[in-house]
Specification:
Structural class of chain A: mainly alpha
Radius of gyration of chain B: 31 Å
Number of strands of chain B: 40
Largest sheet of chain B: 22 strands, antiparallel, barrel
Oligomer: heterodimer
Number of helices of chain B: 4
Number of helices of chain A: 10
Chain lengths: 208, 719
Amino acid sequence: MRLYILILATILLQNTAQAQQSENRAMQKALAMWGQEQNNEACMLLERISKLNDKNWLAPYYIAFINISEALKNSTNKNIENNIITAEKNIQLAYSRQGDVSELLCLEGMKYTIELTIDPMNKGRELLPLIRGKYMKAIRVNNKNPRAHYLLAYFSIRSSKFTGADTKKYYSNLDKSIGLFDIFEKQEMFSPTWGKKSVEKILKNKND
Amino acid sequence: MKIIYTISLLLIYCNLYSQQISGLVSDKKQNNIPGANIYIKGSYEGCVSDNEGKFYLETKIRGKQILVISFLGYQQKEINIDLDNPSYLKIILKEEYNELNTVTITAGNFNSSSKTKVAVLKPLDVLTTAGSTGNLVSAFQTLPGTSNIGESGKLYIRGGSSRESQIFIDGMRVFNPYTCSSTNSPVRSRFSPLLFKGMNFNTGGYSAEYGQALSGILLLDTEDIPREEFTNINIMSLGLGLGRIKKWKNSSLAFNGSYINMGLYNKIIKPNSEWTKPYRTASSEAIYRCKTKKGLIKIYTGYSDTKFELYSQDINYNDKIKHSSEDKNIYINTNYKGVLKHNILLKTGIAFSINNKKQRNTANYKQEIGIKDKNLHAKFKLSKRLNNNISTSVGAEYFQKEMNINKSSNEYYNFKLRLKQKSNNSAFFVENDIYFSRNTAIRIGIRGEYSSMHRKYSISPRINLTHRINTENNLSFSYGIFTQDAEDKYFAMKENLNIEKSQHYIINYQYRIKGKTLRIDLFHKKYSNLTKYANIKIADSFSSNGSAYANGLEIFFRDDNTIKNLQYWISYSFLNTKRNNKDYPYEVSPNFSSKHNLSVVTKYWLQAIKSLISVSYSFNSGRPYNNPNKEKFMNEISPNYNNLNLSISYLISPQTILFASVSNIAGFDNIYTYKYSTKLNNNNYYDVMPIKPDRKRFIMIGLFMTISKNKNKNQINEL
């Protein structure tokens, strides 16, 4: 009898642990699909994950991030309006699920940057300080977030065309951010860790 | 023991054996849909349909499940499946209409919101278009369908006079949109273009929601809650401006003040008239916005005070005549938009204004007119999307107007006149947008209005049919009836007058690809019931037998990306119009119409000097005027009008912009029209005087500074 209960208990426990495990496996699968440029499939899987667990903020985070990266890579893409709308929807969803504020502020800054690249002539006035504000707030919320430092420095470099500011200190900030990437500690299994490769690429291109 | 054995075997068995589901996804017309999202509800398992719409899903889940199929632009579908007995699934998805994938109903519209893709004139274009000097109305005169009547400065649309167009802010009417002016100095609109996030300029065929405009309307939408807090300081050659926006979690308060005084400018560059009291305006506005649980409240209050006095030459007198004018205006506009139960959208508002205007002319005698008018507008509108294909809106509005006129003159004897005019209008409107497919839609509406001035009802049906030929080409037809009460001037004769009416027939074609827009409009306007009189002093000679027509062709082309850093647009309008109203003896082309109108605007960002340079050229062919020395009425045409303007915005630092503009740099000697004396001279001839711009050139220099929490904010509309 006791053995019966023990076996049943183990199987039941396995099932709940399995739920978390299968969610983790699904997240991993989604990120792998994205790694292989299957953006559509990745987003669809992340949406299912997001629907099934209303405490998961990383699923909407990545949906937003995939849409934002897609739009930033190719600003003439016809789908760009959908990218912006989907990103906005999912950023707000992630906020409502107590997502990491610093990381989400970074996403917001990037989303506004898309709007800026579409129409710099008319949107610059409003968006330039807004984007800077988002990144600066991200740093205030979490001074150790390497992405916030990288994005602020990189945006300052790109907008120096209009502001006329000297880019030397921004490049040195980029350099410092690499150190932050190295010591960054993930809070959760799928916390964002991206960015270091991009920084290295920017620094390399500067020197060329 | 046996039970445990069976259970464990079953569990292992279930975990190993997987089932397959396959099928085909297509739409109602048998087109296959690739990229559709197919998944089992409540699980992570799913797949995507391939290029031929076929899908194939392997899963370990068993039993009765729900399969969800979705794809952007189509209604999501859920079907029951039994994973123990799977069958081949043929799934048909129904189209879902939303703003992004359906044709946009254009209705003769120039939409310029910073959000729409189809923006023609962005709100900030107003500030940077050479020749506009921040005056809202002058930027619209670079669009087709408008005539540039230099001495007036107001909006003249498609052969209609300036009273035939109305301006609305957030759906509520603006009663006195222009400041007072003298004979040949044009008016300025009261509002700063920076207040607005979107502007909708309708040169005809506008929605049943609006009325009392025979020609067209300008819809201005104010910003919702601003995204940032900042302070603006503007120092210009003509005055100062100060603004501050304060923002809290769900609300914001904005304050703007400005003072314009032409005195200093007049001393440096002398105008033709002698300004004893130079034109000066002091204005302030406060805007409060608050987000509620289900909506947004906006309260706008503005106060402005304008004054001037000048001496100018008049053909009827040897000495110069003194003109002085003063007006004080208060305008309050409160509106609310929100969502009610069942997804019904509510928009409601109240607008109120008091305008006090005094004008004095002193020649051989003194003449004074004081007009105090109070206006009220209350409105509500409910709209709802009934189903996938139909949205409807319904609303009602009420206008009340009271005018107190005091006239006095000592030309022949001491004459004093006091008039009080009261009128009110009520209106009701219904409008439906019906989508037959993604590419064809019809907007059909009807407006009923009651005018207390005429004691009559008017019914105005309006219809617009738009067809999207493909993503680049749009074609639309519209027809509508538009009504307007007779002019305030003729209020005393209202017993003999009827509501004025115009009918619009418009064909509009648009071609749009990334960064380029081409628009062609063909229109015919027929006016009836226009006020006519034989003698303005005799009430019985008044009737509504006047009529008019206007036909035209308009072409507009805008290009934002062919040449890097260069934006330009060209608009050409051909206008053929004749009217027989007021005291005209027969049908003639009116004084405010010109046959050919051309406008070219360019903006270029020169990186080397961090500046935006704008050059604009406009041409209007001559306007008719009446020479009383000749037999034929209104038979002469003034010379053509040419103007070339230049402006430069230089980014001194992230927070400071230096702006300079020069109008008429080519120094064209323009003549607007001619004025003849009312009395014969000694040679039995009426003397004549040309009406020219008060200044040949107008130069403006300004320094615009923005201070905000984030150090790099600047005010340039980034070109």
